Amino acid sequence: MSDTSRSRSVTTRxxxxxxxxxxxxxxxHQPTTHPPAAQPPASQPTTPQPMTQPPAAQPAAAQQADxxxxxxxxxxxxxxxxxxxxxxxxxxxxxxxQPPRTPSRVTDLGGLVQDTLPLLCDWLPRQRxxxxxxxxxxxxxxxxxxxxxxxxxxxxxxxxxxxxxxxxGLDGSTGSDLYQLxxxxxxxxxxxxxxxxxxxxxxxxxxxGGPHDGLLTYDAxxxxxxxxxxxxxxxxxxxxxxQVGPLRFSNLSGLTTPAGAGSGAPGPGADAPARVGTAExxxxxxxxxxxxxxxxxxxxxxxxxxxxxxxxxLSRAGSNxxxxxxxxxxxxxxxxxxxxxxPESEPGVETETGTGGVAAGAEPGPAAQLATLGLxxxxxxxxxxxxxxxxxxxxxxxxxxxxAxxxAxxGPTPVRSAPEGAAPDGRSPGEGVDGQPIQPGTGxxxxxxxxxxxxxxxxxxxxxxxxxVSVLGRADIEALAxxxxxxxDAAALVAPALxxxxxxxxxxxxxxxxxxxxxxxxxxxxxxxxxxxxxxMRTGRGWVLLDFEGEPAKPLVERxxxxxxxxxxxxxxxxxxxxxxxLLTEVAEDDPQRPRLAALAATWAGRNRxxxxxxxAAAGAEDPTADPVLLHALETDKAVYEVVYExxxxxxxxxxxxxAIARLAAGG
Length: 668
Ligand SMILES: Nc1ncnc2c1ncn2[C@@H]1O[C@H](COP(=O)(O)OP(=O)(O)O)[C@@H](O)[C@H]1O
Ligand SMILES: [Mg+2]
Known about the structure:
Elements lengths: L14 H6 L7 E2 L3 E2 L37 H4 L26 H4 L3 H15 L13 E11 L9 E12 L5 E13 L16 E4 L9 E4 L4 H12 L6 E3 L2 E5 L22 E3 L7 E5 L3 E5 L2 E2 L5 H11 L8 E8 L37 E9 L5 E2 H11 L33 E4 L2 E3 L7 H21 L3 E3 L1 H21 L7 H14 L6 E3 L11 E4 L2 E4 L10 H4 L6 H20 L8 H25 L9 H22 L5 H11 L3
Magnesium ion binds next to loops.
């Protein structure tokens, strides 16, 4: 499992709205380039570790939806005369009797999409990023169809689709999610480039019958020529970008790349090979050469995605702790909300909750129904995934001489002068702190943890400067504590293993509530929201944080709400525990080395947690250890979440968060 295996259970909250409203016919947008969108304002914008830490949310079971339950096509709106202008169609319109040629056969885009729906019914629920696994799909409704420009005669077509997928929940109610799909459509034989191990699964299928019989349809994210068309839209047109139908493309060509962050690097590699990233993820990322990476958000919500919002704010602030943002695209949503009408599950604070996009202005208004669809950022060439990097060191503990854990090689918490120019590990030997080398094979990672803490604090400081902050008063803090307590009680029902600790854990949350009585306040600000080692990368310029989307299972309005920054710190502390515990998953239960390795792992986790906290405080941000009550409560809240996750999905892993629960309950 991984953060990217995180799936969201099917949403049922909009069921009533759907039932009351007839499905909208999808408008089909032709590739007319509209006047540029308004210029962006000058200043703006679980979870398991990959393979091991709980995703933000996870379906109870990862079964596939049963396409036999209903024929989505029959439930989808018919596209009445959607015959659209293929401007090359002088002879296309007579093409029905001709052998298939891509553009000439496709004069009816709406019809093409309709004919693809039965194939999608089978293909969509099998995709890693499909959130509603395990629930029958009852309808797939094309909510918007946009033909993207750039196809020469005979080239595959590139259609941008927003698909509303309706599913039945366990209680029989229906709900829906909106998904983004880049659809490639091509006549003739399957090209070799779509028949490789990396691309075969992208083929949706061939249309069976009707005017588009035999046409090959596929996920265009895996077809380089089509992704380059999309990249062209993102990177041309200047900061105002371009508009194609409801799609709005914007870029920051004027952005000054901070020194050391790849300044002088060429623009996105339009002529370099494009490939879909191999990381396990909940979205789909396309890497262009070694220069840029485009994340396509798969499940689309109305509103500004925090990944774009925070990445852009940090880039504009000159932070080199995130990959520089280059461009993005959004859609005006064809169907009105679907919006974030959920009750707030965390204490309210004053915050912005607009649903407009970045291009609409710094203070987006609720009238603008823009949804973030994609984010193009500088590619961190040669960067090393934080989770993998940490695991390399954890695994090295196995080679540690048979000695007491105190003599484990992960030296004392490093002090405060750490060079960051060192290349990520894989180098020999890397630079550490105060002359302590970080050598692969020694398990010593704490100097890196220190630097990661410092980078995290720098991101928090920059976010606090760039975006709204607020103060949590007594009522807010009490509400925060009571939300945690409620979550604990709900969790204990799902995971009885929590029961023996329940009362002690409640005391932790009560201590937080009581701490508010003496009039203290908590600072709240925008945070990462889903931080763990797998969301960080060690690059030649130090640690960089990725993926500011927050927990995708939570509604956007909640993800965009200011929170105590310590929440991110607590989440990263848990991640060190997971990395250390990973060692034991690779050791047989009856291995005589197990007790020794368990002790080494615990020592490793403790030292790296300390180093991370020390690095965080060294950057000048509020010292998380200065408020142990809050830190303790937030870490406990996260561990409770993990217990539920592991109980449901990986019972073998339950001991990892449970041992943290035991420690936290005992005051550790
Ligand atoms: N700018 C980047 N440079 C290099 N690799 C990146 C970059 N952004 C993301 N990645 C890689 O892609 C993976 C997934 O990216 P992420 O933004 O976390 O997507 P998701 O939202 O799907 O989890 C990361 O774990 C990392 O390995
Ligand atoms: Mg991620």
